[in-house]
Amino acid sequence: MPEMFQELSTQIRDLLWPKDFFAWQTLLLLSVFSLVIAASIDALPDSSPLTIEVLSTLSWIFFTSAIWWALTKNPVKVGNFSISPWITGAVLCLFLFRPWIDTRFRWALSSWPLISTAVMALPDFVKWDLQVKLPKKETQQLLIMTLLINLLLSSWILFYFRVQDWVSHYPSLLVSSLDASEFVYDLARTERTQQSQGVPLLEGTAEAIEGELTDLPWYQTERWLYTRQSRLEEITQRMLTNLSAPDEQVFWRMAVPEPQRLGEGYRLVLRATWLGPVSQDAGFFLEKSCKIYLKREFARCRLKKINPPRRHR
Asked: Where are the domains of the chain?
């Protein structure tokens, strides 16, 4: 066992220790050295943020250059195709975008194919002595095809994040089936309970109506039902501001059809209609019914469950 660890340490030392000053191992050691110095300065009580930032940036530059140099001399291949530019491009994206900060991950991921293409094409346009040259004719077609494929890949990645933004801002879009879509597939449809913002809108509106009508004299209840539309608009505006997805406010319309007479009471139907984008030709609406009945000269309100979403005819 000790011999195995000794042999392994010897191989690692031979791999990482430069045999010549002008080697990728030198850049890698400079990267580690800059990082250690930056960490040491950061531990001091009166450390300079500018100094730490400069040393950290130099560490990234040395590390990226070392990776590019090492993979150029020893390419990583899948079949006959080298993926070394994509590895270098990934490291370069980490350095340029720092995707662990805020929402930069999407820009790092979407830029990765194009940056990798630039890394791949750089030796065909620039010599080691920094002189510009034109790529050979046999490589021009390969470079063009690689650029177009990676441009398409970047577009699809950006489109993925755009769809995620739509779903995040307008969760009611998931109520419509996406089975007929040619380019969008809902991977989590079996795990997620599809509920639109119309559900809390109806629930809140029904509870507000119940609070206004309960224990109200019956003659005032009938007057409320006669002027229901003006009261509904006021309640709806208040409920819309409480939605967890405020961007959906402009796409919901509340309506109350003519109340139906039921013995000594009324059946009031609340209808929330979605006017936003849908995956089918027709939109959908949700309904919740309330039974308003007379009890000892005062009104009572009984709420029923919300009906499943239905499409417009």
From this structure: 2-171, 198-311
DSSP 259: P
Count other Cβ atoms within 10 Å, centred on residue 215.
13
Residue range 225-239: mean pLDDT, rounded: 83
Question: Are 194 and 175 contacting, i.e. CB atoms less than 8 angstroms apart?
Answer: yes
| Strand spans (E) along 150-278 | 252-255, 260-262, 265-274
Beta bridge partners of 302: 291
Strands 81-82 and 252-255: unpaired
Calpha distance 21→200 (Å, rounded): 68
For 307, the enclosing helix (H) or strand (E) is none
Q: Tokens 């009261």 label which residue?
A: 231
Q: How far apart are CA 49 and CA 57, in angstroms?
A: 12
Of the pLDDT bands very low, low, confident and very high (cuts 50, 70, 90), residue 17 is low
Going by pLDDT thresholds of 50, 70 and 90, the confidence category of residue 91 is very high
Euclidean distance between CA atoms 122 and 158, whole angstroms? 25
How large is the C-alpha radius of gyration of the chain? 33
pLDDT > 70: percent of the chain: 80
At 283, which amino acid appears?
A: G
Burial of 184: CB neighbours in 10 Å, binned 0-12, 13-18, 19+ = middle
Residue whose token pair is 């620039």:
126
pLDDT on residue 177: 64
CA distance 298 to 217: 5
